[in-house]
Amino acid sequence: MPIYVKDRQIVVPGEAIGEQGKIKIEGHVFRIGKKYYSKVLGVVTINEDAKVLRVIPLKGKYFPVEGHTVIGKIIDVGFTSWDVDINSPYTAVLPVSEVTSKPVTISRTDLSKILDVGDLILAKIVSFDLNKDPVLTIKESKLGKIPRGVLVEIPPQKIPRIIGKKGSMISMIKEMLGVELIVGQNGRIVIVGEDPYKVELAVLTIRKIESEAHTTGLTDRIKKFIEERLRT
Amino acid sequence: MSEERIYLPSIKRDVILASLAKGERLDGRKFDQYREIRLEKGIVGKAEGSARVYIGSTQVIAGVKLSIGNPFPDTPNEGVQIVNAELSPLASPLFEWGPPGEEDIELARVIDRGLRSARTVDLSKLVIIPGTKVWTLYIDIYPLDHDGNIIDAAGLAALLALLDTKVPKTTVDSGKITVLEEKEPLPVTNLVIYVTVAKIDEYLILDPTLEEELAADAKITFGVTEKGEICAIQKSGEGSFKPEEVLKARDLAINASKQLFEAVKKTVGLADMPQQAQQA
Amino acid sequence: MKKTPPERLIDENGRRIDGRLPDEMRPLRIEAGVLKNADGSAYVELGNNKVIAAAYGPREVVPRHEALPDRAVFRCRYTMLPFSVDERKSPQPSRREVELSKVIREALAPAIFLQEYPRTAIEVYINIIQADGGTRTASIIAGAVALADAGISMRDLVAAIAVGKIGDILVLDINGLEDQFGDGDMPIAMMPSRGEITLLQADGVYTPQQIEEAIKLAQKAIQKIYAEQVRALKSKYEAIKESE
Q: What is chain C's mean pLDDT, rounded?
């Protein structure tokens, strides 16, 4: 039951990963006979304790998943719903019934008063299957319109690195820079802060994490990165 | 005219595969068997040469027209050969009305390349005033009914039309060309037959019907000369071939070409004549 | 600006006009991720060919009614820039560009898991900046890297090379002069790990045996090209790892 790759190794589509045995092989892989191959340009992560090997793409579009929290941009106002761009090949729909529990008289002007083209929302994906576009909701607490902030987009695969193990990375950034970070699993992050310099620094920090997401010791390096720039 | 992409219902594909697994095709043919072929030449009086070919229900008509024109700058002492094909909506609900699409262009260019590589038409014999005026040979191919394997039928039609073509004799007097009534046959040697092999899963079949084509993963067409050499290859479709499959298809094509050469020569009355001079 | 045919394409030492032996490839250079806007991209130099490829997708299908319910629509466009050749090429799409767009698409499609992206479009745009024989093979080399660079699910990369003929000698990776004045051109593309041929064309006259030899000659070169594609894709990320 050989595994041909190491932890943190970069693999290309078609590259042999190994045969499943003591270690389960998951993620963006396909199998021919007993051998598994990578489907993408990705990075191998091996969790020795859980005995799981996973291939994660380094880049790619966001594919809607039910239950995910995403940051969407209103792109069209309809009569009973809004069309929302969620940074995915599939445009999402936010029905008016998922915005408010109050009965609403249906009129387009009313709808654009609630959410207009260009507005950002923090929403949850209620349903998605490959035959229909994803449906969103903002009815739950903490969801809704994002009134202000700076939007940054990164490949969705890198969001876990922004959050860090048990939220360690995101807490560190928030503390050190005194900014609020709203994170969508679709690769979008909104930075809210009073100090424009610190907001800018937060953007740079996110970009650095994006380009080094596949490396180790990142949290420490990012800490140093922020410290150096705060000193100046 | 671009071919609309339509997909065969998967049930149909399964039926085809079940039949192939038993060594047969839905119409009872063997894997390397052609449908009934009918060849007719000289069917359009106004064309300098013409032919109609039926393979099963697939029907293709080809016509050759000649006109006097200028040679290409890098071949001043050769006639010009232009092959054109149009998959008109007349032939199939799959074909759309409009300017030539990728399938039309591919068909024309594949047929042209095979004829050119084999030097089927001796273009050097089509010069009227060396360096200035030559015959332009237009080969126009029009499928009239599409039930699969248009390429092979188109190739046969083009070849027969060329064999049917008569070129008017000309006289040149101080740069002035006079076209005479008298005609002579177009110098056609080095015949080429196109054979298409379709791949459905691991099965290779010749002369696919429309359904078999839609079920196929990919096709590969070989242009074959009478000597059994290959003068054109075109793989098409979004599938792939293992190298061994390519070589097997090559052999199937070379074998199948023999009966097709017989049929062509019989139609033009060449059956009893010794093989034409072969140029490299 | 007519080209005069060279006196001979292979000399008595078996060397070609650019000094190569029959089984030698031209220098190959590949860079991945060279465009900011495209989802994936690649720049390839194969001899004097300079090719850039951009991959977009999966994204919404335009026009919407062309979307397929069970897989992605895959489109490919090969364009020669007007200044890429000796005689300026008109910007109008030529019949050759239409055919090449089709065969390049059919060379790359088998490698993509199109069924993973229903109701979307994946598009590859290839621009030939400079042409010197073998642009379609360089295009496929670039297109495959661009698709992988975009993070699109693929079974394998696709690599390609052309085998030509000078007299009865098979020669690898023909350049512009060899294509124009030689005796045959056989472009071949393969998924290198799967060992499957996804593009095969030929003009010129070949014995059945020569077809087999040409495929074998191409296979060796394709493995080398594959190694270079892999290096180009991995190098961006591995360089950062090393600087840890």
A: 94
Round to whole Å and give the CA distance between B74 and C2.
7
Under a CB-based contact definition with an 8 Å cutoff, are residues A158 and A213 in contact?
yes
- What architecture (CATH level 2) is domain A69-146? Beta Barrel (2.40)
CB contact under 8 A, C95 and B105: yes
Q: CA dist C150 to A139, A188, B207, C159, Å? A: 34, 18, 39, 17
Distance of CA C193 to the CA centre of its chain: 17
pTM higher than the cut 0.90: yes
Residue with token string 């030899």: C213
CA-to-CA separations, C136 to A24, A190, C23, C128, in angstroms, rounded: 41, 44, 19, 9
| Contact yes or no for B241 and C196 at CB 8 A | yes
Instruction: Provide DSSP, A62-100.
Output: ----TT-EEEEEEEEE-SSEEEEE-SSSS-EEEEGGGT-
DSSP state of B72: P
pLDDT level of residue B275 (50, 70, 90 thresholds): very low
Write down the residue that tokens 């793409």 correspond to. Answer: A57
Contact A59 C155 (CB under 8 A): no
Q: Which of C148, C139, C22, C132 is nearest to C77 (CA)?
A: C139
Spell out the alpha helix ranges (H) of chain B: 10-21, 102-118, 150-164, 210-215, 243-267
Are chains B and A in touch, 3+ Cβ pairs below 8 Å?
A: no
The CATH class of A10-57 is: mainly beta
In angstroms, the CA A37 to CA C110 distance is 16
**Interface touch C109/B235, C-beta < 8 Å:** no
Confidence of residue A109 (pLDDT cuts 50, 70, 90): low
Separation in Å, CA of B280 to nearest CA in chain C: 8
Please state which of the ranges B234-238, B276-280, C103-107 shows the lowest mean pLDDT.
Answer: B276-280
Q: Please give the average per-residue pLDDT across B35-50, as a whole number.
A: 94
Domain boundaries of chain C, sorted by first residue? 28-243
Residue range C28-243 in CATH 3.30.230.70: yes
Region class of B148: left (phi > 0), else alpha (psi between -120 and 50), else beta: left
| CA distance readout (Å), C51 to A32, B102, C131, C178 | 34, 22, 8, 20
Peptide bond connecting B143 to the previous residue in cis, omega within 30 degrees of 0: no
* C positions 157-196 inside 8 Å of A (CB): 157, 191-194
- Domain-wise residue ranges, chain B: 28-279
Residues of A in contact with C118 (CB under 8 A): 130-131
Of the options 3.30.413.10, 3.40.50.2000, 3.30.1330.30, 3.30.230.70, the CATH number for the domain spanning B28-279 = 3.30.230.70
At a CB cut-off of 8 Å and minimum separation 6, what does B259 contact?
B34
Distance CA C132, CA C178 (A): 10
pLDDT at residue C110 tops 70: yes
What is the complex's ipTM, to 2 decimals?
A: 0.94
d(CA C44, CA B34): 44
Cα–Cα distance for residue pair C42/C148, rounded to 1 Å: 10
Q: Give dist(CA B261, CA B34) in Å, integer.
A: 13
A21, two tokens: 């045995």
Give yes or no for a contact between A9 and A44, defined as CB atoms under 8 angstroms apart: yes
